[in-house]
Write a structure and sequence with these properties.
Blueprint: H1 3-8, E1 11-14, H2 18-30, E2 36-39, H3 62-65, H4 70-77, E3 80-82, E4 89-91, E5 96-99, E6 102-105, E7 108-111, E8 115-117, E9 131-132, H5 137-147, E10 156-160, H6 164-175, E11 179-184, H7 196-209, E12 212-215, E13 219-224, E14 229-233, E15 238-241, E16 243-246, E17 250-252, H8 255-259, E18 264-265, E19 268-271, E20 282-284, E21 289-291, H9 306-320, E22 334-336, E23 343-346, E24 354-360, E25 363-369, E26 375-381, H10 388-393
Helix pairs in contact: 2-9
Length: 400
């Protein structure tokens, strides 16, 4: 393929989650004519992913969460959308994608392939309709369809993992009328976001409302017991549930990039501040990207949140349309959807010298400070969440 052929090939985006679609919209705001191809491994619907963990409370179906389907996306953005399509390989030397026997040229390529839920143990195919991991709208649709088969019935739902996703779904499913048990090897929920006193306050709020908390214990196996699931715990005890939701974290989908020879790490596809990978014609965006080392071991929390994603899409769109732009991340607190006890956190990028904690009951302020008493991050619960704007302004940016 000649250079002139490359110049007429489309901007190709692999992934149609918030990162991929957000980038396509941002590019369109700069350039209404450039050919853009979006490739999706799923149904390609436009929706807001964070709303998945509050949809039961609001009684929203997958259809109501979807803003538009793939046809609507193509029409609204004037792009080509290919759904249920798996890219088998990237040929960076010739700027081509291999999809089965098809060869698809690209001008510039953006990998917005997201992250896949971690699987802590093997799950028998017999449990397919009883064990779930929610990572996209199709996953939510599948869980919702199973629960809707028994209207009015309280399902026993065991959630493995008490991080952000596990806690939000525990709160949401409980509010939706189900009996929830939350299981985690950590001593308190949200252990990556909250120091122990604040984590205990959240755990107590869960317990008081009827969410069963099983902490400092691991699930070692899931067994088919006919109509439900038996969870085996490491201390020999067991727990029976109708459904299981596994929420044990995410791993960036880097296999396609690694096979193409792009630089990757456990934190994602390595990019610079302009979101460029080790190949100058390939970029990475969203959960799959490790931007300027952010998220690498020893370098603080990664940027798997909405505001960093939006900032990245805006900067990359400018770069792709002729204005090279480095991304900056501000001091954006994480608002956790746990109305039983409101939680806001801005985790420090490096380990603090100390946490200074004030408050009582469920109302806590925790300030992460360095050796000189400078603010590195914070965590707030209960009525103290109203301080989030004030404290965010005093905290250094995630990526300045």
């Amino acid at each position: 393929m000649s250079q002139s052929d490359h110049s007429t090939a489309p901007l190709t985006i692999i992934g149609t989650g918030m990162a991929g679609l957000g980038l396509a919209r941002a590019v369109r705001s700069h350039d209404a004519e450039r050919p853009i191809t979006l490739i999706s491994a799923d149904s390609g619907e436009d929706y807001t992913k964070p709303l998945l963990s509050s949809a039961f409370t609001k009684r929203q179906t997958a259809e109501r969460l979807a803003i538009r389907d793939a046809v609507g996306v193509a029409e609204s953005l004037q792009v080509r959308v290919r759904i249920h399509t798996t890219v088998d390989a990237i040929d960076t030397a010739n700027r081509q994608l291999r999809i089965g026997t098809e060869i698809l040229p690209y001008g510039q390529l953006v990998l917005a392939t997201g992250a896949v839920p971690r699987q802590p143990f093997d799950v028998s195919p017999a449990l397919h309709d009883r064990v779930f991991q929610i990572n996209d709208l199709d996953d939510y649709r599948r869980l919702r369809s199973v629960l809707d088969r028994h209207p009015g019935r309280q399902a026993r739902i065991a959630i493995i993992g008490a991080g952000l996703v596990g806690c939000e779904f525990a709160s949401d499913l409980h509010a939706g009328g189900h009996r929830v048990a939350l299981i985690s090897p950590e001593a308190t929920p949200l252990a990556r976001l909250l120091p122990p006193p604040l984590g205990r306050a959240l755990g107590e709020a869960f317990e008081e409302t009827g969410i069963r908390s099983i902490f400092e214990r691991r699930v070692t196996a899931l067994h088919d017991d006919g109509e439900g699931v038996t969870l085996a715990l490491e201390d020999g005890e067991s727990l029976e549930a109708d459904l299981v939701l596994i929420a044990t974290g995410l791993t960036p989908r880097t296999a396609l990039a690694e096979a193409a020879g792009l630089a990757v790490s456990s934190a994602g596809i390595l990019t610079d501040r302009r979101l460029a990978t080790s190949d100058p014609n390939v970029f990475a965006l969203g959960d799959v990207a490790c931007v300027d080392g952010l998220g690498a071991p020893g370098n603080g929390l990664n940027a798997m949140y909405v505001q960093p994603l939006q900032a990245s899409a805006k900067a990359l769109a400018a770069t792709l349309t002729g204005t090279p732009t480095e991304v900056s991340y501000g001091s954006w607190p994480i608002v956790v959807k746990t109305p039983l006890l409101p939680v806001v956190a801005l985790p420090p990028r490096k380990a603090p010298r100390r946490w200074r904690i004030e408050g009582e009951g469920g109302d806590f302020t925790a300030l992460a400070e360095d050796d000189n008493g400078a603010l590195l991050g914070f965590a707030l619960t209960g009525r103290c969440v109203r301080r989030k704007v004030e404290l965010a302004r005093a905290t250094p940016p995630l990526l300045g």
